[in-house]
Amino acid sequence: MSTAEILEGGVRDVLLLCDHASNAVPADIDLGIAPGLLDNHIAIDIGAAAVTRGLAARLDCPAILATVSRLVIDLHREPDHIGLIPHRSDGHLIPGNETVDKAARIARFHAPYHRVLRDRIRAQRPRLILSIHSFTPCLEHGGTDRPWQVGVLYNRDTRAAHPTVKFFEARGFVTGDNEPYSGRLLNATLNRHAEAQGIPSVAIEIRNDLIRDAAGAEEWAGVLADLAAHLLP
């Protein structure tokens, strides 16, 4: 099973990433959960893949989408992160992960995925990397309402992030500046493949009730296409 799907495009200035695009679980892995949970946010960023595909088509740019659920391994975490292979997610136990061979799962999924990103970025050298995610209006267990329509996540490099916040606010969106969680804590993919390489980047978090259907995903693909045009000199 390949860990990444690559969409090719003619425009090389932008690269799109979608770490949580899939809820797929390989047949030889038993997570020990009810199948219906794979349709929840704990398994996949709802709507993020559709937005990424729509945006890639609008920009005619490459995109890399992960092909395995974050319940198998979270590709948007460092290898030593406590949540890399979750034993619990948003109150749901994942019993099949309690005795997993961590090194083997990293070697099978995490390392190959990040090699794909590394090699693509070396070959393409984009001027901008956008990482597309989605978040829940409220966590299932112990959460409070999240009023933001879109969040902008970043770590130290603010070259793309600060203009992105201003762009969304000017459009009238309720915008989270490093909300609903901070990119200074959760920014593993962009830290490694963008910031460390000197490439401007930003992670876009869209509230998933806005992109659950095709119309919403297409609308946000249009918004982000305008954003990309705004960010590129």
Automatic annotation (TrEMBL):
Keywords: Hydrolase. One of its GO terms (molecular function) is hydrolase activity. The keyword Hydrolase applies. SUPFAM superfamilies: Zn-dependent exopeptidases. The keyword Repeat does not apply. Pfam families: FGase (PF05013). Gene3D superfamilies: Zn-dependent exopeptidases. This is Putative N-formylglutamate amidohydrolase. It comes from Sphingomonas kyeonggiensis. The lineage of its organism: Bacteria, Pseudomonadati, Pseudomonadota, Alphaproteobacteria, Sphingomonadales.
